[in-house]
Amino acid sequence: LIATNLEMLESEGIANFKRTVSNNYYNWVVHTAGDPQLKRAVANWLRHPTPGPLINRMGTADGLRMLGRPDKITLQGRERWRYKFFVGEAWEVARRNDSLGLTDRLAEPEVGNPIRIWYRGRLISQDLANSILELSFIARAGIVRSGARIAELGAGYGRLAFAFAEACPLTYCIFDIPPALAVAQWYLTAVFGEDRVVGYAPTNTFDSVAARLVPGVVALFTPDQLDTFPDDWFDGIQTISTLPEMPRSQSSRYLELFASKSSDAIFLKQWQYWRNEADDAALDESQYALPAPWQLTARRVDPLQPAFFNQLWTKAATRAS
């Protein structure tokens, strides 16, 4: 995965990453009639028909790269219409689940050269729709508030960090590996400016960076640095489509870290079942249990990608208070 992402960045440039490596994070190039996400989108639209997915405008969809294909592709004809419909319906689902009004004020940044789709003059995207859905789900725990401290393991290029940082002034810490960590730092700096980004530094102590972790900033770390943070320092920790890529012992270790480093909430969005051939391991949803006093507060099949589950865990004491 790292080799593929590096090749895409080197050949197509970081300025075009939303058409290349972002498709390896969570942006799906939905363009075939049999795609389960397109079928889900059609079913959602039939239950709540709206004109948006039918009349949204779409720019060019060329220079696209994906895993498993060495060539660049261009969406045309029916493929183009399917993708436009899917993104439009994803936005409608996000609007119906948006508890914070983010679909009324956020737009997809043009940094990274995304496929441009306009909804009533506003630039939207599959990534932004997913981020708003995820944020609204974890907001049920009451942690999306000014001054909160949020962590994310495996943030891709920082799409969810962007949504959280725009929702309210909080501290958002990303823990990831290269090249995603570098892409996220480049992207978030371009979007927010240097003053709001605490760049990665190879430090082994929390005290060396603690003073900079103030509301309004996004900070970047490698995953091993999560262990240096004090217990209960974060109000919430989340991770999306990450744990099945690891050996079983490593994914278990991260769940232990989440349970100790978060004081209030943990959000997991993962494959319901995934076979990791490289490490000869398989994970299903039953293997993501957290220790007491953590309790599963909310669970759903993901609204857009039916192969994924969403779990929201909270501490029993926190819920009682």
Explain this structure:
- With 321 residues, the chain is α/β, with parallel strands linked by helices.
- The protein contains 9 helices and 15 strands.
- The protein has helices spanning 2-12, 36-47, 52-55, 77-97, 126-138, 159-167, 180-192, 248-261, 316-320, and strands spanning 57-58, 64-66, 69-73, 117-119, 122-124, 149-153, 171-175, 197-198, 218-221, 234-240, 262-271, 273-276, 281-284, 294-301, 308-315.
- The strands form 4 sheets. It has an 8-stranded mixed β-sheet with strand order 8-9-7-6-10-11-15-14. It has a 3-stranded antiparallel β-sheet with strand order 1-4-5. It has a two-stranded antiparallel ribbon with strand order 2-3.
- Strand 4 (117-119) and strand 5 form a beta hairpin.
- Helix 2 (36-47) crosses helix 4 and helix 5 crosses helix 6.
- The longest helix is centred in the first third of the chain and has 21 residues, at 77-97.
- The N and C termini lie far apart (43 Å).
Number of helices: 9
Order of helices and strands: HHHEEEHEEHEHEHEEEHEEEEEH
Unreliable stretches: none
- Give the overall pLDDT as a whole number: 94
Strand order of the largest sheet: 8-9-7-6-10-11-15-14
Main β sheet profile: 8 strands, mixed
Class inferred from helices and paired strands: alpha/beta
Please state roughly what percent of the residues sit in beta strands, choosing from under 5%, 5-15%, 15-25%, 25-35%, 35-45% or over 45%.
15-25%
Percentage of helical residues? 25-40%
What spatial form do the alpha-carbon principal axes imply?
A: globular
- What is the total tally of β strands? 15
- N- to C-terminal separation? 43 Å
CA radius of gyration is 19 Å
